[in-house]
Write a structure and sequence with these properties.
The protein is mainly beta and about 270 residues long. It has a single domain, classed as Lipocalin. The chain is built from 2 helices and 14 strands; from the N terminus they run H-E-E-E-E-E-H-E-E-E-E-E-E-E-E-E. Strands 3-4-5-7-8-10-11-12-13-14 form a 10-stranded antiparallel β-barrel. A two-stranded antiparallel sheet has the order 1-2.
Length: about 270
Amino acid sequence: MKSFFYLLVIFITATLIGNSQTLDDFEFMGEYYADELYLGFAVSSSHVTNNEAPYPEHHKLDGISGELTMRYMRAEKGEISWRWQHKLIGDMTIFMTEVAKGNTHLVERGENTGFSCGLLGWWNWTMNVHEPKKYMISVGANFHDYFLGSTYQVDSLPASSDRVSLEPQGYYFAIGPTIYGQYVLNKYVVLEAGVSYSIPFWRAVSLDYAIVDNDYPNPHFGQINIEAISKWGLYAGINYNWLINRGDLPNNVKRLDLTFGFRFRV
């Protein structure tokens, strides 16, 4: 209890330092944060689950991945910022690690679930709705692509190798609304949170081994991003993505990434 109290005192004290600072005054690595292009690299602790699968324990995936980000930030009313995330290259680290450990189910199409961004990554554009203060609210749109696929064991088939991949599955391109909020905690840290809802407009390809049902309703996708951004370039974040399955087949994939990285001015 004492430890919690001490941490609370430290948190409140840190919040009060530089309390009058607005977002357009925040300095990042010695210069103003706004009106700059940033590139970031992060290590991620990644966790994928599909609890509606017949054998959900086979659909859990935990590993160390990576993330590449880019963003251009603006701080005045009516100005547009954009953010980009890409996880696919980093996810190959999980793939290679599992293979090195002898877990060949990812290679041999064992029972599992895959959920990642596509080749283009996740793009968000938002417009600031008010003048810069200690906080900033911005609204806009997103363009996301997703790789999605689950392979299930079919109990009614005699051999253990009899597996199927059901809807929803494939490579989806989606658009939808996005809202972001930023808050200057103190002169050292900015907190940022964003929510996106993405509705597919095109499934580019299906998995070549899937049981395709073109009448099955396209899934929707949700995303939450939370970051603590320090003035020294270091940042830590939570990235949460989930599938909104609009059909009746068992699939409720979720992905949680805990990230720690470094972002610099380009």
